[in-house]
Write a structure and sequence with these properties.
Elements (H helix, E strand, L loop, with lengths): L1 E2 H5 L8 E2 L9 E2 L1 E4 L13 E5 L10 H11 L4 E5 L9 H9 L4 E4 L5 H35 L4 H12 L3 E4 L5 E4 L10 H11 L9 E6 L5 E9 L7 E6 L10 H40 L9 H4 L12 E7 L8 H19 L8 E5 L4 E6 L5 H18 L4 E5 L9 H15 L8 E3 L4 H5 L5 H12 L8 H15 L4 H8 L3 H15 L6 H19 L1
Helix pairs in contact: 4-7, 7-11, 13-17, 14-16, 15-16
């Protein structure tokens, strides 16, 4: 867009003089109009520069004030008056009024024909738009060539920053920097500083329109920034941040920036689709692994060799955590929204979670928009829970994505991964749809209880009494607490720290209560032969207590 100042700075228009000192020369000029009609404001477009001899005002220049007001109402760029033909000079009152409203009054020499001047001005304006259009198409062509040559997003941003000669930053949907122009390599502050300043002003960036505002610069003074949403998907855009957009040199225009944004959206979309394709391959492998392991005739397949490309390793520890991304199932059109949420959740976990857990892998579960986290090394459950909680909470602060984790049991053979997956999924299904505030859930087996449902009540009662003694059907509060501690202790694989956290009691209290239980039972709790009977007796007696 061309301003009055830019027009007047051009040598061929050097004989045009600004009459009033307080004229606002930043006004945009889009067209040139010639008229001697007092009500011309009713017929000219916005941002027009009016050329006139002011013939209608030669006997009453005060009416020029009315003309100025009418032109301001239609955002006129100013009036060019041919002084000397009908008006010897402008009245000071008119000049003073124009100064008071900062409206440009331009003096046109008496020797300059208005038609010739109009033609010259329009030629410049039209040539400027043609040049801007040509430059925008050049940008599109150059970026399209980068796209065809499979250039990285970082290369696009570096080239774009070089073209427009001002710093550029690209944010992902998590509002984190994924690319930046080379301006920042010479700066004492990194791009994240500017992003922090942006988010201080606008914690929620607009996802459907360009925004522009001031932020604090490195030197302490405010600078202008513009933000453009880049639609690589439907609901969660990327964001292009341009610092000091007012310094972008001619002939780069808003249209040129729009062309760059459009090509960039194609690049990001292509990358997302490639990533999605690779994840689908992993999801297919995991689905086949789970399905085939449940069929005895298919156990001869070497799942370790076929899983090497998907991060499967030879280990003595495999545990599946079923990850549920809470969706909106009420509307059919939400399906794409939910798919994008689970894709973002997967990317977030890969970036933030996997670095904590060596050899862990994330798989997309086919047909239900959920994820499976496969652990291939053992970790302390307290540490594991802490990292899961923090990772999910950090995501929830940025985007409307809430995650729930459901654990299956750990197994020592790759052929048993399907067992852990089924348990993790059952754990999720147990709490799905219920008002559970916890983010993390563990599988609680009911298999043995179902086997004994047809036994006589007195036989079950005898078995439980013989195994648990006073802990079988306690009534005293102290015995009830001992039983509860014992159950929790066994549920969490005899880990004292985990038990104390679950029950909100001190570790030493757990140790004391377990010692008391062993005295009552007469056998160490961790004895393998006794542990099975103990778990079964607790499950069966609980049914009687609940009844």
């Amino acid at each position: 867009m061309t301003t009055m100042k830019e027009l007047l700075d051009i040598p061929r228009f050097s004989d045009l003089k600004v009459i009033n000192a307080s004229a606002n020369l930043s006004l945009t000029v889009k067209s040139i109009e010639i008229s001697e009609t007092p009500d011309v404001a009713l017929y000219i477009p916005k941002h027009a520069l009016l050329l006139t001899t002011a013939m209608s005002y030669k006997d009453n220049q005060q009416d020029l004030i009315t003309l100025i007001d009418s032109l301001k109402r239609v955002d006129s760029a100013g009036i060019g008056i041919k002084v000397g033909r009908f008006l010897g000079e402008l009245d000071q009152a008119v000049i003073d009024y124009a100064n008071s409203v900062e409206f440009p009054l331009i003096q046109i020499p008496n020797t300059t024909p208005l038609g010739t001047l109009s033609h010259q001005l329009l030629n410049y304006l039209w040539n400027t738009k043609t040049e801007q259009m040509s430059f925008a198409l050049d940008i599109q062509k150059r970026f399209s060539n980068l796209l065809m040559n499979d250039a990285s997003v970082a290369r696009f941003i570096a080239d774009f920053g070089k073209m427009i000669k001002t710093p550029v930053i690209l944010l992902d949907p998590f509002q984190e920097v994924i690319a930046q122009s080379k301006d920042f390599t010479r700066s004492s502050k990194i791009a994240e500083y500017y992003v922090e300043q942006v988010l201080l002003k606008k914690p929620q960036l607009l996802d459907n329109e360009t925004d522009s505002f001031l932020i604090n610069g490195i030197e302490g003074h405010e600078i202008q920034i513009s933000i453009y949403p880049i639609k690589a998907n439907n609901y969660f855009p990327y964001f292009l941040i341009i610092l000091k957009p007012e310094q972008i040199p001619y002939p780069i225009s808003e249209f040129a920036v729009d062309q760059a944004c459009m090509v960039l959206s194609f690049v990001l979309y292509k990358n997302l689709k490639v990533e999605e394709s690779l994840q689908n391959l992993g999801g297919d492998y995991f689905a086949q692994l789970i399905e085939s392991q449940q069929l005895s005739e298919n156990k001869t397949k070497n799942w370790l060799d076929s899983g090497l490309n998907f991060g499967i390793i030879n280990s003595n520890f495999y545990q599946v955590i079923y990850i549920h991304c809470q969706h909106d199932y009420q509307n059919e059109w939400k399906k794409q929204y939910n798919r994008e949420k689970i894709q973002l959740a997967s990317n977030w976990l890969l970036d933030k979670l996997i670095p904590y857990f060596r050899d862990a892998q994330i798989f997309h579960i086919k047909n239900n928009n959920h994820l499976a986290l496969l652990l291939q090394s053992k970790y302390d459950y307290e540490y594991l829970e802490e990292i899961l909680e923090k990772t999910a909470a950090d995501l929830e602060k940025i985007l409307p994505i809430s995650l729930v984790f459901s654990f299956g049991h750990a197994y020592n053979k790759i052929e048993m991964i399907s067992n852990s997956f089924v348990e993790a999924k059952m754990s999720f299904e147990e709490v799905f749809g219920k008002n559970h505030q916890q983010r993390i859930h563990y599988y609680q087996s009911r298999g043995m209880q179902n086997l004994f449902e047809k036994l006589q009540t007195d036989e079950i009662h005898y078995f439980c009494q013989a195994t648990l003694k006073e802990l079988a059907y306690p009534k005293e509060e102290s015995m009830v607490e001992l039983r509860k501690t014992l159950e929790t202790y066994l549920d969490y694989q005899c880990e004292i720290t985990k038990t104390s956290k679950k029950l909100f009691i001190h570790r030493n209290t757990v140790k004391y209560r377990i010692d008391q239980c062993e005295k009552i039972l007469g056998t160490p709790i961790n004895d393998p032969n006794f542990s099975l009977n103990l778990r079964l007796a607790l499950t069966l007696s609980q049914s009687h207590l609940n009844g």
